[in-house]
User: Fold these one by one.
Assistant:
Number 1:
Amino acid sequence: MTFRVAGALCAALLVVQAPPSWSQSQGSGAGNGALTLPRALQKAASASPRLVAADRTIAMSDGRREQANALPNPTVGFEVDNFASGQSGVVGGVETTLQLSQLIELGGKRDARVQAALGDYDTARLEREATRLELLSETTIAFVEALSAQRRIQILDRQAAALERLVPLMQRRVEAGASSPAEVTRTQAAVGMARLERERARTALAVARRELATLMGLDRPDFTAVSGDFGRISRPAPLDAAIKAIDDNPQLMRWTAVRARRDAELLSARLKAVPDVTASVGWRYYGQTGDNALRLGASLPIPVLDRNRGGIREAQEAAQKTDAERAINRLTLIAVVGKAHDSANGALLQVDLLRRTILPAARATLATIEAGHGQGRFTLLEILDAYRTVADAELMEHDALAAFHTSVATIEGLTGSPMQLARAR
């Protein structure tokens, strides 16, 4: 079980870089302080305090496991009898006893206690691995958000530049008496709106960069940009394959360890009613005669008033609750994976529709209107509407790509391995 999870985690760290070309330098910022996804994942896995805390939890569980195997300490006792006998108060006939006692646990109590501690230790290890997968997924999603905001700024830069080129054209038309001065101010307003959207995107990028840096264990971003091929997409494998892989998620695998621990706790609760023997051996000295004697003894409680019935019932309910808790956890994970899978496929359909029909048509329309506007065949409102249509289509494609990559990262984080992807046509 442990080796399967470890292999999945290694695969997630090395291959969760969907799409693969994200590891390559892309864009103007590449090679100059640009952060790639593999580097971000490596930093997150090595510097996150969440994993350090999980390691400490494992060490604590290991300490409990060691302590559970310890035997009870022996007890040493000292007694003095007849210390002040007689009416005169003179000490006489003193009897001195030195005794050593040892509690002997019966019924396998220590073994049951050790098994419960082992189950707790295994649970902590699997929870640590689940935390690591979750961290890798969150880092990938944060990387996608930063790359998305960065690319959105580039799109808005192009849109603002295209609109800015219209301003001097409108001014020349006004000077020639071919247009109203209102068209210049209307164009300037469109440019201002594009710049406003760009500033909002820059704020979103700053927030995304800071969130990514936090997941990497940094106080502030130490990178100037993120690098990746945002436009490359692939089609996810069928949902059934992702659901089948859910059973290997450490979040579900830990319930096996939880069940083992609770079964051991139930056994401990049942064995608590079994009385333990306290054996003792002692040495007694009779002061009046100077004789020595050996004392042997044994005692055990009588299980009449307390047979731990309430504790047994509580432990039984806890053990039986495990299967229901695992089922709840599994259904939750399946719901998340199913939602992410539907979102990924929906985003692919949107990208396909935008790239095949909407974007080519919008760009062709813009080119026709731009060519005819100089000849006075189209109004300013028509050319601004054409610019807005192209801008909206490009941003819709961008949002669909962001949703796709986020969904894939979510699925990979829950399945513990990269999705089997096929190139989208």
Note: Residues 309-373 form the longest helix (65 residues).
Number 2:
Amino acid sequence: MREEGRISGWQLCMLVMGFLIGTSTLIIPVGPARQDAWIAFLLAGGLGVGLAYLYTSLGKRFPGETPLEYSLRVLGRWGGTILNVLFIWYAFHLASLVLLNIAELYTMVVMITTPLIVFIGVMAGLAALAARAGLETIARLAELLTPFIVLTMLTLNILCLATPNLVRWENLLPIMAEGPIPVVRGMFDTLAFPFGETVFFLVLLPFVVDPGRTRRPFCLAVILVSLLLSSVLVRNITVLGAAESNRTIFPSLAAVRLINIGDVLQRMDSLIIFIWTFAGFLKLSIVYYIFVLGTAQLFKLKDVRPLTLPVWLLLTFFTPHVYENVQEMLVFAGRVWPFYFLPLYLFHPALLLLVAKIRGVKGRGA
């Protein structure tokens, strides 16, 4: 292992929650389910618990090892190496997408005349520092930020409810007007983003103090975030309507901007931008660290720290070319990502677990 730090079950729960919230509230999609998007999200959360069960089953079978280590024993040298390279690529691609989401928010809403590359370079550099500090530092950051993020999101929901004539519950009707097919499509999209992205925690499970007790905090985090983000979807739909939520690039920002209680509590958009910054940076730091650690294990390096600076440069120059504009990003996230990401978040761990059981391969500490 190229990491000596250890984290607790509580820290794992905070890491998973912060990771799932990440940029989800920034571009949380209504999608084909429209006014039933919150139902699709809850169903996807239920399937996300199933994914958590799958990932923790692998973690229990191979305690103290990451998938980049035991895949070579399970699938052989060539098969394991191919899967490891794909795993590392997906981690790098996700890091670039998260980084670009954060940078796009600032160039479109906050500092519109500042070049995009400035925010990309700064955020990537901060993530590099976090990765260089190690997993325990990122876990402590999650302990500090995640409760604050959750509390603030709940507060904004309550303020929307308290604003006179803002919430229209009839926007949630009719329920399943076009049948279950749009809800199933929306559920599939949501399963990939954000719940399927927790597959990267396969790299972090070996560092939990008690690897055999990771299932409860992992599943608890998925359930809590499912409920929280479903409430955000309900807020956006009841405030803006399903059609407007679908057209708006940042629907949560548009909804929160309408908060006005006695002409005193208003213009809360700055608060939600802080939330997105903290949550997005936390997710970026986790994926950045996983990519660096996975690359070190792939090439059998003794230390991950020499990789943090080259990865920062590589990510900074690669990220601006991921897509041309925000509309292209939304199309990619809604139509391409669920299918593009499917081999990693479902087929990869299922194949490893199935072959390991058939061949009777277990971890050295099992």
Note: The chain is about 70% helix and 0% strand.
Number 3:
Amino acid sequence: MRKYILFLLLIIFALQNTQAQDSLNCKVDKAYIASLGKDIKPFIISPAKWSRNQWIATGSVLGTAAILYSQDRQIAEFWQRNQSDGIDKANEYFFDPFGKMYYTLPLMGGFYVYGAFAENNKAKRVAMDFVQASLYSGVVVTLIKHIGHRHRPYQTDPLNPYLWDGPITSDWNRTSFPSGHTIMAFTFAAVVGTHYKETIWVPIVVYSLATLEGVSRMYSNKHWSTDVLIGGALGYAIGTFVVNRNHCKLKTIPIISSNFSGLSFSYPL
């Protein structure tokens, strides 16, 4: 847990050099709760509004996944051949926890508390966006897992990445595809990295940690490489979608009259 406290302190240090962009307080209130549901439809239909570059990126990910799918067994064998006590400990105590919600949620809670006390709206927005993005990621990954019911590497002997039970199965423990830890790690990285993209080291750190989380899932024989790739891509897409929706939407309207001039701020629901 100490490493996550240190990470929070590093982000807070970055916050000190970042001016909050909003003049209106961002709160966890009825408007925020309502926005969680209102954005479901835009989230579902968002591919219909993708740009040409987004479709190219999606095609590139799917093409890479197709190549990796043919090499999943060989990649799994590589990681199992390269085990060591030192990497085992690093994986257990540093890499793997990054994708677990009982670490990242308290960390985001720290963001919100800091933002509330320091009157830093950006910190609160990070926490609020992460909560929403993680909810979406959790639903998406659960649905896909139980549609495919792919066998995990350790559930096959010999290794066989082509075992899928499909949606109708009596064994619901076959949930390899996609990687839940990786989607959550990249959701976290996308939210934090997008909000603090102007502080170059923040995206580097969070995306590096998310990538190491994906590697750790393969190293521990829990996931195939395609599970990790698709999980990471989904986490990134969902995290950036939520941030770009910008739930603490502020409209700034200049007011000029004979006896008063200033700015009006509105928060659309």
Note: Residues 17-25, 247-269 have pLDDT under 50 and may be disordered.
Number 4:
Amino acid sequence: MVLHSQSIRSDGRRMMSSDGRRIRRRGWKLFGLLGLVIVFGWIGWRFFGSQPDVPADEIRKDDPALRVQVPAPTPIAEIAVVEIQPVNSLPANAPPTTAAVIDDPNQIAQQQPADGMTQSQSTPEEMAALNSALQTALAQADTDPVTARVSLTRLLEGSAMDSEDRLRAYQAINNINAVLTFSERVLANDPFAQQYTVKSGDSLSNIRKSLNLDCEWRFLQRINHLPTERSIRVGQVLKTPTGAFHGEVRKSEFRLNIFEGDDAKRVMIASYPISLGEFNSTPTGMFAIRPRSKLIDPEWRNPRTGQHFQSNDPDNPIGERWIGLKGIEPHNKSFDGYGIHGTTDLGSIGKQASMGCVRMLPQDVEVVYELLTEPNSIVTIAP
């Protein structure tokens, strides 16, 4: 007699139960292995997969061997600069105004010059001559601003002046150009400004094209203090620039200087405070404006977190302007994903805080966007 516990049905249940336990144990092992792969994959992506802060359609070809890991230099103290208002908010005859770049005293205290960063190795006689030249240029600012701008440009192109004198020269350059560059006035001896009389059928865009100007039509609206791009009339006299515009980043000073003209005849028209790449990751050398890379209100995806910001999102960390840069020297040709852009983190200006790009205050990057054009503008990034 077969016992109930030894029946075929009972044996089958025991075999099925044993097989189920083996399958469940195998499933837990596979699940645990998959979890380890996900955890280590995330860690690798988080710490080794970082990319520079660029719009969604910009990709940086990064070479880890070219990264420089050095201590962050201490930026120089910030100075008051000319505040250029957004073009759509400018009244017809708005005078240039001045405002402090940073209002937080603690932030200013953090931005003192590094020891020996711009200190001169000149003799006392040479320093005295430089100081005398600076005093002469500053004295000319009111009586002959065109000549004073040239003199200050030549002084700032060198590095012999100490940091305090350089700050005074930058301040004077911005104040002088509030009239020479960013107002509708045209001085007779200024080779970088001319006048144009509006004709029937003209628009700011076709005026820029007909005169082959190396700037955006928005810059014409800005310097002529026009409420809108359509606020021109036949017979109206407009101010227009004559030269191409170029940029120079001085990493040791955390400044972006804008020049008009080329070679030895160029003059500095503006100097802006900036933020640079953390761990000295902003590359050096000569860069052109990457074709079709200038964007207004760009969308952006954070390559570290994957967070996506739509166009016109006020929380977009890269602000409302993007100017793509492309290396044009043998050592930086692979760096084509960096750029100049705005920021919502105003406290980062004057620090190494970005993923390698050049950050600017919102009102400053709007002006630079209007001035730097392709193919003629060159941006030089110096140590």
Note: The mean pLDDT is 79.
